[in-house]
Design brief:
3 domains, mainly alpha
């Protein structure tokens, strides 16, 4: 493993913890790809005394004996390993959680529909800065970009409250129904959306009764529309 990866596993050491931001930038934010000579020197100075904390049996030794010149390097996306994809996944999660002020990401957290410009911005980040489209497809399949980002940042409490405000004002709900809606709001704030309505049959939603016992078809239809509108606003 690269030294930065090994150091990240020693985060319980105070001296390593002090450099956690730099280590995370190197691991998950493509920091080394944007640095210059002075930056490398700064990294060397900050990390050189931390290598001793890496257990000896986990340190890599590199012996080289080059006899041929390297004329070209070719990256074959079909040979991506599980480690490659795990690293890409960590980069994505770290970058998105640390950059929630980027307009496209902020819109997703605020339940605001994306524009074509926003979608292009996400493509540039996820398929350009942090990796490739092939890596994305290998890791996330056909998951839309907006849905992935929303699943990471969730939905703001205010946006979730606003999304259900019309439903709550139109429906006269009893205590069980209010509890049910509150569980939905809590879930969406944390997870960003509900794509599979069937989870509403499970705990904690079902703690006070089955869905069919709590809502009649007319009221649930309106509730379902509010849920689906949130997912639609993450489409990208």
């Amino acid at each position: 493993m690269p030294p930065a990866t090994e150091l990240s596993q020693c985060a319980n050491v105070p001296a390593v913890a002090e450099q956690s931001e730099l280590i995370n930038q190197i691991l998950y934010n493509a920091y080394l790809e944007r640095t210059g000579v002075l930056d490398y020197e700064d990294i060397r100075i900050k990390l050189r005394d931390l290598i001793k904390f890496i257990p000896p049996d986990e340190r890599n030794r590199y012996d080289t004996n080059f006899t041929d010149d390297i004329l070209s390097l070719e990256w074959n996306e079909s040979q991506l390993t599980n480690d490659d994809l795990a690293s890409y996944n960590k980069k994505i999660n770290y970058y998105i959680t640390q950059n929630q002020n980027i307009p496209a990401i902020a819109k997703l957290k605020g339940n605001i529909p994306l524009t074509p410009k926003d979608i292009s911005s996400l493509e540039g980040i996820l398929w350009g800065e942090l990796g490739t489209k092939e890596q994305y497809n290998a890791q996330y399949g056909k998951t839309p970009l907006g849905e992935l980002v929303r699943s990471i940042v969730g939905l703001s409490q205010q946006a979730a409250n606003d999304a259900f405000s019309e439903f709550l004002s139109d429906a006269e709900l009893d205590s069980r129904q209010m509890h049910f809606v509150k569980q939905i709001v809590n879930y969406i704030v944390k997870n960003g959306m509900i794509k599979d309505i069937s989870i509403l049959q499970e705990s904690p939603f079902s703690d006070l009764g089955r869905l069919s016992d709590i809502f009649d078809d007319t009221v649930f239809s309106k509730l379902r529309t509010a849920i689906e509108d949130i997912t639609t606003n993450a489409a990208a």
